[in-house]
Amino acid sequence: MNRQHILAGLFTAAAVCAVGVVLRAQDRFTLKVPNGIAFSEFKGYEAWQVIAPSQPDDAGGCGSAPAPGCIKAVLGNPVMIKAFADGIPANSRAVPDGAMMAKVEWAKKHEPGPPYAATVPGRLIEVSFMVKDSKRFPGTNGWGYAKFRHESSGWTPFGDSPAFANTCHACHTRVKSRDFVFTEYGQR
User: Fold this and answer.
1) By C-alpha distance, which of 184, 144, 152, 114 is closest to 34?
2) Which residues, other chains included, contact 53 with Cβ-Cβ below 8 Å and sequence gap of 6+?
3) Is pLDDT of 152 > 80?
4) SS3 22
């Protein structure tokens, strides 16, 4: 084999790997949870504004992460961010239809680089979504819930039946006076 054939083979292999990475990244947008919510409904969530970070006090509230727990960031689409700016849900008014939130969860990772102890996001665990659509989700007070777990093999929709959203909503009934939204907008 001459040098040109070797280089062509290397470039072809690199291109195939790059296409594989792109296809794998796009794969999540073809997924749906059992209640019909598609990952594709939240395209661009990565650029949404941060509402607030969150860190459970114990390792129990972290998707499938093993101890020592996780770090979460709750993000909001522009409709949700405007609702917070208008004092919703703290003022007991309803969040408007079209509002969306994403909760991104990572395993904790200790960062040795800074001159102080730091815990930073490590492996991605899952992304959960809430979407307000009163017509589409009347049985859960207008909120739709979706969860997608991330493994080394790719993304998996979470929940074995459409009823799993009722499980999510049952927990959120604790904050009914806040239109079922736990997270408060972090002061800046």
Assistant:
1) 144
2) 71, 72, 73, 74, 186
3) yes
4) helix
For tokens 């689409």, name the residue. Answer: 77
Which runs of E-coded beta strand occur in the chain? 49-54, 70-76, 100-111, 118-132, 143-151, 154-157
Q: Rounded CA gap, 62 and 184, in Å?
A: 19
- Confidence (pTM): 0.80
- The predicted pLDDT at position 63 comes to 64
Q: Is the pLDDT of residue 145 over 60?
A: yes
The span from the CA of 111 to the CA of 14, in Å, is 31
- Please provide the DSSP assignment of 73-90 as one string: EEEE-HHHHHHHHTTTTT
Phi, psi (rounded to 5 degrees) for 41: -65, -15
How far is it, in rounded angstroms, from Cα 3 to Cα 75? 50
Please name every residue paired with 184 in a beta bridge, in sequence order, or none if there are none: none
